[in-house]
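Look over this record before class:
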Amino acid sequence: MENLISLVNKIQRACTALGDHGEASALPTLWDSLPAIAVVGGQSSGKSSVLESIVGKDFLPRGSGIVTRRPLVLQLHKSDEGSREYAEFLHLPRKRFTDFAAVRKEIQDETDRETGRTKQISSVPIHLSIYSPNVVNLTLIDLPGLTKVAVEGQPDSIVQDIENMVRSYIEKPNCIILAISPANQDLATSDAIKISREVDPTGERTLGVLTKIDLMDKGTDAVEILEGKAYRLKFPWVGVVNRSQADINKNVDMIAARRREREYFANSPEYKHLAHRMGSEHLAKVLSKHLETVIKSRIPGIQSLINKTIAELESELSRLGKPIAADAGGKLYTIMEICRLFDQIYKEHLDGVRAGGEKIYNVFDNQLPAALKRLQFDKQLSMENVRKLITEADGYQPHLIAPEQGYRRLIESSLVTIRGPTEAAVDAVHAILKELVHKAISETPELKQYPALRVEVGNAAIESLDRMKEESRKATLKLVDMECSYLTVDFFRKLPQDVDKGGNPTHSIFDRYNDSYLRRIGTTVLSYVNMVCASLRNSIPKSIVYCQVREAKRSLLDHFFTELGKMEQKYLSSLLNEDPAVMERRAALAKRLELYRSAQAEIDTVAWSK
């Protein structure tokens, strides 16, 4: 199952390269779901020496005080026997380090780049991969050493800052805690054991390592701890003997140090019975095997997370739309297709599939009738106005039977006031049609992708609606003008004449203009105007729908399409200039989706082979 850890290492590297870790999210990231081993210990507990013993190389910075000031994510990859050992940093892709002294210097330099040449710390990790035939497949996270006091050059908060950083890693349920404690100090004061117990009280995730066993006072030993009697963990303690400072100064290599470590445990009377499970080599194997076991147990949860995340990524990529074509024909097709989608959504609003079209009916059913009712025909047909217009229409020759010219003037002066509500209805429908354009644009995901095209389509649609409004205004006002220009004769023929009612047409002019006579004229005109209003109430909506709504459904973007065919490729390209943030987001999502699909395929293969 060695390939399983290699697979997890690969996925972790890819996650890191894409930034798919440590992000605030309602859903845990793939990185967070993958098991890893965090190395925890107090300053000068021998943490660095343990890591170097596992790797078999000198590569970590050393010194007094706080040396590890940024988390180091160390991924070990077992390569073929006889292959060359080398290291790679994520921040220096394609650069291989074969000199591990140069690796140490790069860790120091990269730490200083983030924190400056101070004793400050940073939670931004350094990612290092080491390839060697002498290592086991493993991922270790070396964390800054826990401390109890701030030294000169450090803020007072450094103690809490380091603890918070360590907790942010070891609190995760998928984190295995490698707790490093020196044997020459009381275990009750161990920083690593204290913080591990707080986040893992049952010891289910904690592996204990005891360092500096060879430096214990004479007459004392660590047998009770190593046997699990002094402090029991679920997994057996592992004791290690690291190189002394003198060995480091003499450049004693790791192979010799490991041999001496094996000899120490094999030849010590106190530890001889434990020698088979002591030492750095055994620790590396235990860690690799345990990590492999944890990964196996987490596969169903990892698969579930991957499948859910793939669905979310595909959904968001679909919402962002496809990347644009490179050639002119492809660009023109893309624009036409997007416009077609917009036009379809616009029609759905008008046809009732989506909300908004009902507002037009409200104009016809409520606003227009209410506006017609508000026309004050009674003022127009007041006694004074009727007398005035009748008299003026007669001129020097009084009318003989009925004041026809007076009737015409009274009717025309009343009907002309209907133009106001008519134009208001045209404007109201125009406003609704414009509102639906903006709504349809906002509901067309593809237009959000291209701001320039969104503006162009919006402007073209509004220009078309403006032209339709003018045509509708002319056509609808003509309906009113028609009523003014030709009166319905049958209406007046059916009216009783004065002679029929016993009137005497030879009465004097003054009798003809008495109040009763003028009132009857006003009533007749009002009846006729009301008849015309009732007719226009039906014909005005028909005209508006025909000239505006119907045309908007049929040819909203026709003029734009005509102009589109004349545009040069450069201008077409400018219409498809995406928001840079959208382009970056799509590229990042595509890479992340590729990672998750690859992880899905490989983890599924491993799961089926179990």
